[in-house]
Design brief:
- The protein is mainly alpha-helical.
- It has one domain (2-64).
- It has helices at 2-9, 11-14, 23-42, 44-47; strands spanning 50-53, 61-64.
- The protein is flat and about 45 Å long.
- 6% of the residues are buried.
Length: 70
């Protein structure tokens, strides 16, 4: 799903077909790398009040932090 969104948002970079052999590596290179940098530098989990684990779209899990630092 996120590959399709990426192609809609940024078609000039990724090309017109999200699941094509050309677009998929470009997607991984650009968006996955950026996400890894963001998580490494910002540690957003530390500041989150809630976390959504959606590895399984049919069975998402929502976690709430009991004692969150403001």
């Amino acid at each position: 799903m996120s590959k399709i969104r990426a192609v809609i948002v940024d078609p000039n970079v990724l090309g017109c077909l999200a699941l094509s052999e050309v677009a998929a590596p470009k997607y991984r290179q650009r968006y996955h790398a950026a996400q890894r940098i963001y998580f490494a530098e910002s540690n957003p989990v530390q500041y989150a009040n809630a976390l959504l684990k959606n590895n399984s779209l049919a069975d998402p899990i929502l976690f709430f932090r009991a004692n969150h630092l403001s």
